[in-house]
Amino acid sequence: MSAGASNPEYVNARVRSRRASLFADEDYRKLVRMGPSEIARFMEETEYEREINALGARFSGVDLIEYALNRNLAKHFQDLLDWSEGRLYDHIARYLRKFDVWNLKTIFRGIYTDTDPEEIRTDLIRAGELEDATIERLLETDSIEDAIEFLRATSYYEPLTVAYEEFEDHGALVPLENALDREFYENLLADVSRGPGAEPQEGPEAKYVEFLQAEIDFRNVRNALRLARSGADLDPAAYYIEGGVLFDRADLGRLVGDYDALVDHIAENKRYGDRLSGALERLRDADSLIQFEHALDAALLEYADTLSSIYPTSVSAVLSYILAKEREVENIRAIARGREVGLDETEIEEELVIL
């Protein structure tokens, strides 16, 4: 643990300033009418100017946009750590390990699909704790088994080793990805909670626990829905992540086949039903899995915003900003990629998370 007292008032003041500079929904509507080079020029007139200028000599088009996005994201999240002290620093540093999980999943998918390492590299977000040298070494591996072996010194090695046997049996990446999620979320929650699913005490730290429980709940929904529709011979309940408050294993297995029942189950939970009325309507209106997943992302962001307004000096405001910054980067990336492959504006807008 970091020594010294936390400084949430200072950090949250800095975060409010950063939050105000994020793209508005109207900016995304402008971007969907632009080609990749126009998007890059638009970004150059925003707070992405430094990254676009620094990378412009080496990259162009969508590659320039993606490298600039990822470098900017990592810079902003490093700033959060630089500003923070004490327990607040610990909370943020542990939460940013989610990008280690993102990067490992991305590398595994790349190896699985025999993707060129340079293409994999454009999707990596260097904002976690894994060192660049470790990531570069993983990009050089020829098999998932070798990549797992290279992670022997990390906490991910043991769960991945167990999951690898199931991966070999089914040929699907789900067991490996779920092992990474479980290791991240369950360890993260154990640091601040009295146990998986426990109701937190009142106060700023309780809102951190509530946020983590909500993220686990929505991760469980997303994973179960993807599995149920994948056609893979895998039981969604077997990939349940402990720590949320919305489901048990039986609930998840029962509800994944019925959108309406699933949304009703979320709405009936007092914690979510009282705070997510707008998001619940978006969930009800979703007519595809991708729209439902985007509605879940919007719901989590709305929930984090609500928690940060209840306790302005808690870490919730920082977590809400992290989610909002992720949303900006993913939206810009989706627009650039959509324009590159010739999607029309309506198709691209369906890929965006807009509140």
SSE map:
Layout: H1 8-20, H2 25-31, H3 36-44, H4 49-55, H5 61-83, H6 86-95, H7 98-112, H8 117-121, H9 132-139, H10 144-150, H11 157-170, H12 174-190, H13 204-230, H14 249-255, H15 259-268, H16 270-273, H17 277-285, H18 289-310, H19 316-340, H20 345-349
Helix pairs in contact: 1-19, 3-4, 3-5, 5-19, 7-12, 10-11, 11-12, 12-13, 13-18, 15-17, 17-18, 18-19
Organism: Haloterrigena gelatinilytica
Main location: membrane
InterPro entries: ATPase_csu/dsu_sf, ATPase_V0-cplx_csu, ATPase_V0-cplx_csu/dsu, V-ATPase_V0D/AC39_subunit, V-type_ATPase_csu/dsu, V-type_ATPase_csu/dsu_dom_3
Give an account of the 3D structure.
The chain has helices at 8-20, 25-31, 36-44, 49-55, 61-83, 86-95, 98-112, 117-121, 132-139, 144-150, 157-170, 174-190, 204-230, 249-255, 259-268, 270-273, 277-285, 289-310, 316-340, 345-349. It has 355 residues and is mostly helical. The chain is globular, with a radius of gyration of 20 Å.
Relative helix content: 55-70%
- Total number of helical segments? 20
**Principal-axis shape:** globular
Oligomeric organization of the protein chains: single chain
First CA to last CA: what distance?
36 Å
What is the CA-based Rg, rounded? 20 Å
Structural class: mainly alpha
Instruction: Indicate the mean pLDDT.
Output: 89
Ranges where pLDDT stays below 50 over 5 or more residues in a row are none
Tell me the series of helices and strands, N- to C-terminal.
HHHHHHHHHHHHHHHHHHHH
Largest beta sheet, briefly?
A: none
Strand content: under 5%
Number of DSSP E strands = 0
GO molecular function, one term: ATP binding
InterPro entries: ATPase_csu/dsu_sf (IPR036079), ATPase_V0-cplx_csu (IPR014272), ATPase_V0-cplx_csu/dsu (IPR002843), V-ATPase_V0D/AC39_subunit (IPR050873), V-type_ATPase_csu/dsu (IPR035067), V-type_ATPase_csu/dsu_dom_3 (IPR044911)
Subunit structure: Has multiple subunits with at least A(3), B(3), C, D, E, F, H, I and proteolipid K(x).
GO cellular component, one term: proton-transporting V-type ATPase, V0 domain
